[in-house]
Design goal:
The complex is a heterodimer of chains A (about 600) and B (about 130). Chain A is of the alpha/beta class and about 600 residues long. Chain A contains 26 helices and 18 strands. In chain A, the strands form 4 sheets. Chain A has a 6-stranded parallel beta sheet, with helices on both faces. A 6-stranded parallel beta sheet of chain A has the order 11-10-9-12-13-14, sandwiched between helices. Chain A has a 4-stranded antiparallel beta sheet with strand order 15-18-16-17. In chain A, helix 15 (about 360-375) links the parallel strand 12 (about 355) and strand 13. In chain A, helix 2 (about 20-35) packs across helix 3, helix 9 packs parallel to helix 10 (about 235-245) and helix 11 (about 250-265) packs parallel to helix 13 (about 300-315). The two termini of chain A are about 55 Å apart. By secondary structure, chain B is mainly alpha-helical. Chain B has one domain (about 5-125). Helices cover about 80% and strands about 0% of the residues of chain B. Chain B has 4 helices and no strands. The longest helix of chain B is centred in the last third of the chain and has 32 residues, at about 95-125. Chain B is elongated and about 50 Å long. The interface of A and B includes residues 11, 16, 17 and 51 of A.
């Protein structure tokens, strides 16, 4: 769709309806004039002619097939002759105009113009923060669903018509405006709200790296302050994006490569990381750690390259099977098809420690690992899954690691968007060493179980913690962190959550802050726990009465009148206020 | 020469001339104002309006608005006529005739503006 079609669809419709409308006007005019000219007779048999008023009335109801009969007098034969002509004329006129109108409504150009205009309107009327998601493939769908669940709005651009229209079938809680258009065009991105004041970020997830690059450049130039999250599978494209300052480049293979490297040299840190970044509610199974032996790698594409460099860094030997090994291939290269037993045997699969199937064909990958497991049942298997649709097959085969790029990208995007503190915390984990990580993992899993927890950020500012901010500013109290995390239902219990990381307003950080650590204005917290605790903490941070109860155990009367009464404590006590006091208590119970 | 331009100009000028033909004569004398001429003026004006649909230029917009004004005035004139003769039953008295004719006079002015725009547009083209 070119930018020229943004004009109002009204003009298009009017221009197309010109001929049918003129036809209708002419038919009406001819019929009416004819009827006033044809001689008729009145009630007493005198010759008369119909006037314009009655002629127009008669033709109007005849042409619209309502048909009230012959008025004001019964028609003469010559009038009837003329009316026969008029009836057929008007039928032809309507058939032609309605046909033209329907043809216009069916017209592809017209419909896309209407769709575009609706989309434009929907964007213009957005008054909530939203994210611009480019590409509604598997990753895009995952992201949109998750954004919808956490109550954030999204706008979707997708180049394929049928994928874009799937969006309406997916049943999100709010409407997600979508447009089937090419996001590489800056005009389209602007139209979709790139420069909209409420746009919070651009997420480029198309399966075409160069399109993602184009989106990144457009976002950088047209909306330099917006964070852009871009998927890139090729290293060159990722470097290109980085060169002009794209803040978040997500390479699913690189990400997985790092995970696997971490799993190889620091299993506890890896488990902790997996537990923290898992989809909330999913059980993270502690699986066997990848062995340090010789690896066999099938397929040397983007993913293969990342895996090779990762294994090289870890100092592990490997054998690579590919259809077309490079010209200066050494002895670790084998030409052939990884799915054939011959090639695998040639690669000495029997005494290999692990196998990585990383071609871009799911069935091929499955064939490789099934054959490899038959030859060597103890193999550690890393399997790449390209399409979500093949989930059932991959579930049936129990691999040690299944790499699903779309899930990795979606998880990473959501972590960046919703819990920006998680990334620095995870970096910290990697540096603290194995013993520290395994102690923390034991503590956390003992308390919360192996189910992946809800991980969220809270910020002591006016929007996220108005009540706490007021307390901090007016009383100058020292509020220990542990007190905040008491249950607002019953403060003798603690909430099922833990603060993992604290960033002060001056960017100094505290790892795993102690419960006596004081809270200050501008603090940002990273918490992990169950989602009920999240809701309860939110209440504490927003509601002053709840906060006061949590901190002091006092029940504050709710409502202005009760507050005023409470201030005049002495007054109502003297005025027989025990009655009112009971009422105040009841009222505050109700408000809680 | 462009056939579309011929038809366009024809209807605009015809709308103005028919309107003028109806308007000319004593203001309050119904004999000077023929009902068929009013009807023809309305029909031709409506066609001229539809012909102006869909032009996105500024001049096209002004063209369309003058036509809409003329339509409005002429249809109102016809309504006044029909109401007084058939509903109120007073017939074409001098007062009613004056009302009808002066309404059509307003439409005539809008039509003249339309013709002026047409001429201005033609001169701008210089071809």
């Amino acid at each position: 769709m070119s930018p020229q079609t943004y004009e109002s669809t009204l003009f298009l419709a009017l221009r197309r309806m010109r001929a049918p409308l003129i036809t209708l006007i002419l038919i009406f005019a001819i019929s009416v004039v004819g009827l006033t000219l044809v001689p008729g007779v009145d009630g007493e048999g005198h010759p008369t002619r119909m006037d314009f008023f009655h002629a127009f009335y008669f033709i109007s109801y005849t042409a619209t097939t309502i048909g009230f009969g012959e008025i004001p007098y019964a028609f003469s034969e010559s009038q009837r002759l003329w009316v026969i002509f008029c009836i057929y004329l008007s039928v032809i006129g309507w058939a032609y105009s309605i046909g033209a109108l329907l043809a216009l409504l069916q017209d592809q150009n017209f419909r896309s113009a209407v769709r575009l205009q609706r989309f434009q309107q929907a964007i213009r009327h957005l008054r909530e923060p939203f994210y611009l998601v480019c590409g509604y493939g598997e990753t895009g769908q995952l992201i949109c669903r998750s954004l919808d669940q956490i109550g954030l709005r999204a706008v979707v651009l997708e180049i394929e018509d049928n994928k874009a229209s799937q969006l309406d079938l997916h049943g999100h809680s709010v409407d997600i405006p979508q447009l089937a258009a090419d996001a590489r065009q800056p005009e389209i991105l602007k139209l979709a709200g790139l420069t909209h004041p409420y746009c919070q970020g651009v997420i480029a997830l198309t399966n075409d790296d160069s399109a993602n690059l184009a989106i990144a450049i457009t976002a950088r130039l047209l909306a330099p302050k917006l964070p852009a999250l871009c998927r890139a599978e090729a290293v060159e494209i990722a470097n290109n994006m980085a060169s002009f300052g794209t803040r978040h480049i997500i390479n699913p293979f690189d990400k997985f490569g790092r995970y696997l490297a971490l799993a190889l040299h620091a299993p506890a840190a890896y488990h902790l990381l997996e537990w923290l970044t898992g989809v909330p509610g999913a059980v993270v199974k502690p699986h066997r750690d990848p062995p340090r032996g010789r690896w066999v790698l099938c397929g040397y594409g983007h993913f293969g390259k990342v895996m090779v460099s990762m294994l090289e860094q870890e100092g592990l030997p490997m054998t690579i099977i590919d259809h077309a090994p490079p010209a200066e291939s050494g002895e670790r290269w084998i030409q052939g098809d990884g799915a054939s037993a011959a090639a695998l045997l040639k690669a000495n699969i029997q005494d290999a420690a692990g196998v990585v199937a990383c071609t871009h064909d799911d069935i091929n990958n499955l064939a490789i690992v099934v054959t490899a497991r038959e030859l060597n049942p103890k193999l550690f298997v890393v399997l790449r899954q390209n399409l979500q649709a093949n989930q059932a097959l991959f579930d049936a085969f129990e691999s040690d690691f299944t790499v699903v790029p779309s899930q990795i990208v979606a998880r990473e995007c959501l972590a960046i968007l919703t819990t920006p503190l998680l990334a620095p915390f995870l970096d910290e984990i990697k540096q603290r060493g194995e013993v520290w990580a395994s102690t923390l993992l034991d503590q956390l899993t003992e308390r919360f179980g192996w189910e992946a927890p809800a991980v969220w950020s809270a910020c002591v500012n006016a929007t996220q913690a108005p009540a706490l901010l007021r307390q901090l500013s007016c009383d100058g109290l020292r509020i220990p962190l542990g007190d905040l995390l008491l249950d607002p239902q019953d403060r003798s219990h603690e909430l099922e959550c833990r603060v993992l990381y604290l960033v002060r307003a001056d960017d100094s950080t505290v790892m795993l802050p102690h419960r006596h650590t004081p809270v200050q204005a501008g603090d940002r917290l990273l918490l992990a726990g169950n989602s009920a605790a999240r809701g309860a903490l939110e209440l504490t941070l927003h509601n002053e009465n709840t906060l006061d109860y949590v901190l002091s155990g006092r029940e504050i009367p709710g409502g202005w009148i009760w507050e005023q009464l409470a201030k005049r404590h002495g007054w109502w006590r003297r005025a027989g206020g025990d009655f009112i006091a009971a009422d105040v208590k009841a009222n505050s119970d109700r408000t809680r | 020469m462009n056939l579309e331009k011929v038809i366009f100009g024809f209807f605009i000028v015809l709308a103005a001339t028919l309107n003028f033909g109806f308007f000319i004569g004593d203001l309050d004398n119904p004999i000077h104002h023929d009902v068929y001429e009013l009807f023809a003026a309305i029909v031709v004006n409506l066609i001229a309006t539809v012909l102006k649909f869909g032009d996105r230029t500024h001049i096209g917009a002004i063209h369309l608005s003058t036509s809409l004004v003329a339509d409005l005035q002429l249809i109102t004139a016809a309504l006044v006529w029909g109401y007084s003769v058939h509903v109120a039953g007073v017939g074409m008295t001098p007062e009613i005739t004056t009302k009808v004719v002066s309404l059509s006079g307003g439409a005539l002015f809008a039509n003249v503006v339309s013709v002026v725009i047409l001429i201005a547009e033609t001169i701008m083209q210089r071809r």
